Amino acid sequence: MAYKLIVSDLDGTFLNSRSEIPEANREAVRLMTEKGVGFALASGRSYHSLDRFYDYLSLKGRGICGISFNGAVTYEVDNLRQLKKILMKNETMRYLVAEMRPFLKDIYVYDADGVLYCEYETETYSGYHTRSRVPNAIKSFDDIDSDIIKILLLDDYSVLSPVYEHLKDIVPGLCNMFFSSKRMLEFTELSATKGSALIFLSSHLGIGMDEIIAVGDNFNDESMIRAAGLGVVTANGEESLKTGAGYVTLADNNDGALLEIVENFL
Fold it and tell me: Is there a single domain that holds both residue 74 and residue 98?
């Protein structure tokens, strides 16, 4: 199969454990560009947060499309023009937040415009906002009058696990709930997944799903790994994702798993 596009998760897949791009992965993107193979990031992060990585890789001006907010927003990288946006109902957000409040303070909501809302200026929030580089507002969630993109809980797994257990019988049929890392529990509208975004992107670009490689490491990547022509899980990925994957890399995210994929399949 002649693959035309590789779509990669960012954190835990394309970035190493220090949130840097390994030299091997930079080389992989260079080789893909030489071969005329497209590259896109599919991340839980905001499109604002992803922008600097495309700049760093010199991928601007190539007509690339990306996937952000775990599939809730598909967009053009060059100008951040949104091609498709899937929102969670405001009343669903309010209901979920009320259920979460007894467990923790660090609840983050991205409104329909990608603005990050938090009700408390905590140390965790300050660090997250600095890293993510997104527009933000310290305001009550009652001030959000639109539907929203996603809810994010950020804390230690020991804090998030009881929230997950409390909500696991509530969210089916209401929204998606998944861990994107041990410290991040996320919520999106039911049809907002990386897999559904990849199917949309395939149609938009005129590329068959069988011509796409999707690579990831965590539960929020599962839908696109299963949907792509070749679904790849990195060596450091969740063990349950490796079952049924088309390929599991020998290299982990610190060793440049993307270069291994390029060398083996392009």
Answer: no
